[in-house]
Specification:
The strands form five sheets. A four-stranded mixed beta sheet has the order 11-12-13-14, with helices on both faces. A three-stranded antiparallel beta sheet has the order 3-5-4. A three-stranded mixed beta sheet has the order 6-7-8. A hairpin with a 5-residue loop joins strand 11 (240-246) and strand 12. Helix 5 runs antiparallel to helix 6 (171-183), helix 5 packs across helix 8 and helix 6 (171-183) packs across helix 9. It is built from 13 helices and 14 strands. The termini are far apart. It is an alpha+beta fold. It folds into three domains: 6-76, no CATH class; 84-212, no CATH class; 222-332, VSR Endonuclease (Endonuclease, Chain A, 3-Layer(aba) Sandwich), CATH 3.40.960.
Length: 333
């Protein structure tokens, strides 16, 4: 059997066959195809028809060996169905000349924390008509220095991506994106400020400029960032991120998501991972130690951040106020 000559599209995203990769002797009869006979990878429609013929292509599609993810692009069934990077690749293959933007660009840069079932591309106002199910095109005007290449695809730079999301998303998501980008060092506060200045006339830029000033790469989760925004929007003191609580010998024992060390008050965001029994036992031991060493901790969930944030701020304010006038010796007791 003739060996398949494969051209890698990009690491981890599958392969696309060269147009002359498979000889006709390999798949002589559609009705007698074995499972290993259908080619694996990503295929443009015109290439697939030219190489394999309409009968074979339709057979693979009808049998489920191939799927049509986007118009004009096929993927074999062994390609992952829930890989957003693959979906982006397929969308780019289907249109060819557009730039990956917004949530999709964030995925490629490594800070895709918002999630989106839609692939976002841009290519000027005239290209917006290409929007279809699962694919949205935006009429962005992009300068050459705002376009980079990631995995062989044209994509907005990390800075342009962050500012686009920060000015168009809700404020909670905006800070989460900024923190995530800063955490992986995809950009810096200075480069974000410069990008915001270059987009000074864009809608939502006032919000973006305000929130990038609060960005902090020490934030370890999107929900922690969102909880912090609720605090920054209040009159409460600004917390310290990832504060280590030490014992009497100065050894680091426990780390708090957000802390007010001068008042021995902390805030912890508890996600679903805190519901399993080993984690619950650890949390009980942790809480007992912190309480014995004079710390008061407010535990919050997504309900507190999204729906009951006024109650969260009231409770936090009560803890901080109770500790405001206490001396260091009183706080230590």
């Amino acid at each position: 059997m003739q060996n398949l000559r494969l051209r890698m599209i990009t690491a981890g995203l599958g392969v696309i066959h060269s147009p002359n990769a498979v000889g006709s002797e390999q798949i002589a009869g559609c009705g007698r195809l074995a499972p290993m006979d259908w080619p694996s990878g990503i295929f443009r429609r015109e290439q697939a028809l030219q190489q394999y013929g309409r009968a074979r292509v339709e057979y693979w599609l009808q049998s489920g060996a191939w799927t049509r993810r986007f118009s004009g692009v096929y993927a074999s069934a062994d390609m992952p169905a829930d890989d957003p990077r693959l979906d982006i690749r397929l969308a780019v293959e289907s249109v060819g000349d557009l730039v990956v933007v917004r949530e999709s660009a964030a995925v490629l840069h490594g800070f895709g924390i918002l999630g989106s079932e839609t692939v976002h591309l841009a290519g000027g106002p005239a290209k917006t008509a290409r929007s279809r199910r699962g694919l949205q095109t935006h009429g962005y005007k992009l300068a050459p220095n705002e376009i980079a290449r990631v995995d062989g695809m044209r994509v907005t730079t990390a800075e342009r991506t962050v500012i686009d999301l920060a000015r168009s998303s809700n404020r909670l998501d905006a800070l989460a994106v900024i923190d995530a980008a800063l955490r992986i060092e995809a950009c810096t506060p200075e480069t974000l400020a410069a990008q915001a200045d270059s987009q000074r006339s864009s809608r939502g830029i006032v919000q973006a400029r305000q929130i990038i000033k609060w960005g902090d790469g020490d934030a370890e989760s999107p929900m922690e960032s969102r909880a912090r925004l609720r605090i920054l929007d209040s009159d409460l003191p600004t917390p310290v991120l990832q504060w280590w609580v030490c014992d009497g010998l100065g050894r680091q024992i426990y780390r708090l998501d957000l802390g007010w060390p001068e008042r021995k008050v902390g805030l912890e965001y508890d996600g679903v991972d805190h519901l399993d029994k080993p984690r619950q036992r650890h949390d009980i031991e942790r809480q007992a130690w912190l309480s014995a060493n004079g710390w008061r901790i407010l535990h919050v969930t997504d309900v507190d951040v999204y729906r009951l944030h006024h109650r969260m701020i009231t409770r936090l304010n009560s803890l901080l106020t109770d500790r405001q006038d206490q001396s260091p010796s009183q706080l230590a007791s």
